[in-house]
C-alpha cells in the first residue's frame, strides 16, 4: 500500500487515460453498430440484446474511468500546498483521532505547522518573560536550553565526521 500511496498520481493518471480512451473506442464501436443497423433497417430487439456484452464492458470501463478520475483528483489535492497553521492542525488531528478512516488519509501531516526556528523559539520565550508567564529563572533556563540545543545541532556534522574518521582508522 505504501508504493501505491507514493505513486497514486502517476497510476491514477495512466488508468484514467487508458480507460477513457478504451471507453471512447467502445462507445464509437457500439455507435457504429447501432447506426449501421438503423440505416440498414435491421435495428431489432435481438440486435440490441446482442450488444449487451459490449454495454456491460462499457459500463465497467466507465466506472473504472470515474474511480480513477476521483483518485487522480485526490492525488492532485494531496500535492497542493495546504495552509499550515496552528489553528487547522489541531482540528484535523482531532478529527483523525475520532475517525480511523480519516486517519488513513494522513491529512494532518500536510497541514502540520513547520517547526519554529531557533529565533522564533527565543522570541516566544522572551514574549513569555515580558508577559510575566515565566519568571527570570525560568527565562534563563529556557534560553540556556535553547542555546545548548542549537550548539549541539551545529556540532552534529563535526561529530559525524569524527566518528566516520575514527571508524576508518580502526
UniProtKB/TrEMBL annotation:
The keyword Transmembrane helix applies. It comes from the Archaea. The chain crosses the membrane at residues 7-39, 51-77. Residues 109-170 are annotated as: Disordered. The keyword Transmembrane applies. Keywords: Membrane, Transmembrane, Transmembrane helix. Residues 142-170 have a biased composition (Basic and acidic residues). This is SHOCT domain-containing protein.
Amino acid at each position: 500500500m505504501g508504493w501505491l500511496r507514493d505513486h497514486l498520481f502517476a497510476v491514477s493518471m495512466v488508468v484514467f487515460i487508458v480507460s477513457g480512451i478504451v471507453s471512447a473506442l467502445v462507445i464509437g464501436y457500439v455507435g457504429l453498430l447501432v447506426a449501421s443497423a438503423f440505416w440498414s433497417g435491421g435495428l431489432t430487439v435481438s440486435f440490441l440484446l446482442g450488444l449487451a456484452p459490449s454495454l456491460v464492458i462499457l459500463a465497467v470501463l466507465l466506472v473504472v474511468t470515474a474511480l480513477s478520475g476521483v483518485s487522480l483528483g485526490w492525488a492532485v489535492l494531496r500535492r497542493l500546498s495546504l495552509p499550515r497553521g496552528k489553528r487547522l492542525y489541531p482540528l484535523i488531528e482531532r478529527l483523525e483521532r475520532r475517525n480511523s478512516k480519516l486517519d488513513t488519509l494522513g491529512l494532518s501531516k500536510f497541514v502540520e505547522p513547520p517547526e519554529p526556528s531557533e529565533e522564533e523559539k527565543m522570541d516566544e520565550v522572551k514574549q513569555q518573560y515580558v508577559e510575566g508567564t515565566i519568571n527570570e529563572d525560568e527565562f534563563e533556563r529556557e534560553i540556556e536550553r535553547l542555546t545548548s540545543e542549537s550548539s549541539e545541532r551545529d556540532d552534529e556534522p563535526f561529530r559525524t565526521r569524527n566518528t566516520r574518521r575514527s571508524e576508518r582508522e580502526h
